[in-house]
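Annex B. Sample input.
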Amino acid sequence: MTSSAQPPPPSGAPPAHAHAEHLGHVVFITASAAMGGFLFGYDSSVINGAVEAIRDRYDIGSAELAQVIAIALIGCAIGAATAGRIADRIGRIACMRIASVLFAASAVGSALPFALWDLAMWRVIGGFAIGMASVIGPAYIAEVSPPAYRGRLASFQQAAIVIGIAISQLVNFGILQIADGEQRGKIGGLEAWQWMLGVMVLPALLYGLLSFAIPESPRYLLSVGKVERARKVLTEVEGEHIDLDARVAEIEHAMRREHKSTFKDLLGGRFGFLTIVWVGIGLSVFQQLVGINVAFYYSTTLWQSVGIDPTGSFFYSFTTSIVNIIGTVIAMVFVDRIGRKPLALIGSTGMALALALEAWAFSEPLVNGKLPDLEGTVALVAAHVFVLFFALSWGVVVWVLLGEMFPNKIRAAGLGVAASAQWLANWAITASFPSLSEWNLSATYIIYACFAVLSIPFVVFCVKETKGKPLEEMG
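Annex B, continued. Sample output.
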């Protein structure tokens, strides 16, 4: 257990009261940037309500359906891999604006497809936007946040993601009610599932508008020689009491030791990548291999497969997303108090137990198309407990660590590679679940439980605590 005492502030860092005076402004900036996280969550999860309708409309099997659902994750991986380089060239704010346009285009295109391949193409475009948002949000928030509050502010990204997930499920449930419980029911000439996918255009436009109301990252501004603008932003986010010259000198000193991060900079370790890059990749992969996105991409299909009616399955998808929010709030409260590693270990233990219970429940044969009452209740409760422990730990901790753990000279590129690994692992889970569940649903959850168990020694031996450390001290 790490000490709760904060280290002394770095040279030039403002006192705590200076942080507090400007915290409201920093919160607005952070929340605006985290709108990309909201769209990340919304776009990732909204497909949950359309899965069975897409299967029926295009008359496709589980394997083909899984590829249509998962193909967006290929776009996510590409977007995450390139976002760091783009951000270093044109700035964080410009990247946000590009992502907002891609989100809006994907929403409209996905709602109005004329063929299955067309829907898949728009899903890839939306995935590219998600990948960009997954990198730019944490990097930008880490760069504008005062060190004393950085963990909690970085948690805004995950909070926005889980709120986006919840809102998408609430919107899906509402649209289903309007369509009389039919996922292919007509509303104004379009089927219900098309409305589900199209509504995202509204938050996408809001994201673009908010990008005009927040400043560029001071680190990026200094990197392109815009010193006065950087000084102004630092004053806005860290307070007028800051020793501005010392703070700028501190950042510039760190930047003089670095250059524009590239993929090549990540190489040189014993197994190709530097050790810190492998740790980032490991965090990202473990976050996905526990099967968390099965709960958000396939939960309605999963509950229907064990005998719950469509309306009930949509409702349980929504309640799961509410639990997700509760867990995220818990993490935001404790991430700077007890540290990143303790939360991750608590979450891994809870997830392993919950997944084991789900595996046991799904091992029972269906009776008249439904799980027996006891097993059905255990499956529902365990699914919610699993999401709770994920949300209060790995859901937040991974994004916080990825925004903090890399040295300045490789932060953008390192975060991009780690996020790409996360999306590829997400794709592997998403693409394989329909076929695995048809093979043996219980065994599938045993696999996820094993990954949750393996994540415990990984955290203990490979992950370093970053609580309270200035970004310039990472190395």
